C-alpha cells in the first residue's frame, strides 16, 4: 500500500454534506487498525479528511470507501458498494466498444466510464474521481504518457492507479509508462483478467479468491 508523503491541507467540512461522517477512532474500529495509523494516512494526504468548525477531523464515507478500493483493502459492508470505478481513455471507438463488451460480465464489480480524448480525461479524472484509468498511449490530442505525467503531478490524484495500453508493446514502452507514473503497460487487444488482477478487484470488494 502506498504511503505517500507530505502534508494534506485539510479544508472545513462542506456545508450540506449528506455523507456519513467518521472520526479517526470510528475508522480504526471499522478497519481494526490503530488510530495513529488512520491519522498518518490523513497526514500523508492519502485519506481525505475535513475539519469541523471545532477543529475535529472527519472523513466522509465516500472518501473512505474510495481510499480502501484504491489501496486494495476490503470494503466493510457498512460502507456499501465496493464497486471499482475505471476510466478508459482511447480515441478509437471500436476499441472502446470492445473494452465495454469485455467488461460487461463484471458490471457488479466495475463501473466503466470512457472518453476518446486525453484532454477530456484530465477533466474527468477530477470530476469523476475514478479509482483507476486505462490509457491508450497513442492519442491525437495528448498522448497517454503525458496524460499520466499530468495526473501524477496532481497531489490529490496520487491514489489513482494508471495503466497504459498499446498495440506497440515492448520493454522500452513499458519502462516509459512506469516512468510516467503508470503501474503497468498492457498490450492490445486488452486482457480483462490482467486488469482485474492489477486492481485486485476481488480483494478490493472483500471477496476471497
UniProtKB/TrEMBL annotation:
Q: Which UniProt keywords apply?
A: Phosphoprotein
- Report the domain of life of the source organism: Bacteria
Matching InterPro entries: Bact_response_regulator (IPR050595), CheY-like_superfamily (IPR011006), DNA-bd_dom_put_sf (IPR009061), HTH_17 (IPR041657), Sig_transdc_resp-reg_receiver (IPR001789), SinI_DNA-bd (IPR010093)
Which residues, renumbered to this chain, carry the PTM 4-aspartylphosphate? 136
The record's annotation in SMART domains points to: REC
A UniProt-annotated Pfam family:
Response_reg
- For whether the record's keyword set contains Heme, the answer is no
The reply on keyword tRNA processing is: no
Please give the SUPFAM superfamilies that the UniProt record associates with this protein: CheY-like (SSF52172), Putative DNA-binding domain (SSF46955)
The Response regulatory domain is annotated at 85-203
Q: Name one GO molecular function term.
A: DNA binding
- One GO-annotated biological process of the protein: phosphorelay signal transduction system
Transmembrane segments annotated in the record for this chain: none
In Swiss-Prot or TrEMBL terms, this protein is called DNA binding domain-containing protein, excisionase family
Naturally occurring in which organism (per UniProt):
Stigmatella aurantiaca
Amino acid at each position: 500500500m502506498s504511503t505517500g508523503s507530505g502534508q494534506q491541507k485539510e479544508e472545513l467540512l462542506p456545508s450540506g454534506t449528506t455523507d456519513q461522517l467518521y472520526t479517526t477512532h470510528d475508522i480504526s474500529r471499522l478497519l481494526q487498525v490503530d488510530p495513529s495509523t488512520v491519522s498518518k494516512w490523513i497526514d500523508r494526504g492519502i485519506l481525505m479528511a475535513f475539519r469541523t468548525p471545532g477543529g475535529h477531523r472527519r472523513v466522509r464515507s465516500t472518501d473512505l470507501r474510495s481510499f480502501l478500493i484504491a489501496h486494495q483493502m476490503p470494503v466493510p459492508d457498512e460502507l456499501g458498494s465496493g464497486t471499482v470505478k475505471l476510466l478508459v481513455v482511447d480515441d478509437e471507438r471500436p476499441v472502446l466498444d470492445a473494452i465495454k463488451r469485455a467488461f460487461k460480465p463484471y458490471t457488479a464489480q466495475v463501473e466503466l466510464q470512457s472518453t476518446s480524448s486525453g484532454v477530456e480525461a484530465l477533466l474527468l479524472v477530477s470530476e469523476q474521481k475514478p479509482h483507476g484509468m486505462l490509457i491508450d498511449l497513442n492519442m491525437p490530442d495528448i498522448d497517454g504518457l503525458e496524460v499520466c505525467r499530468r495526473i501524477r503531478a496532481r497531489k490529490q490524484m496520487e491514489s489513482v492507479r494508471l495503466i497504459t495500453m498499446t498495440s506497440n508493446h515492448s520493454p522500452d514502452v513499458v519502462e516509459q509508462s512506469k516512468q510516467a507514473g503508470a503501474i503497468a503497460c498492457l498490450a492490445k487487444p486488452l486482457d480483462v483478467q490482467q486488469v482485474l488482477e492489477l486492481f485486485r478487484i476481488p480483494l478490493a470488494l472483500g471477496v476471497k479468491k
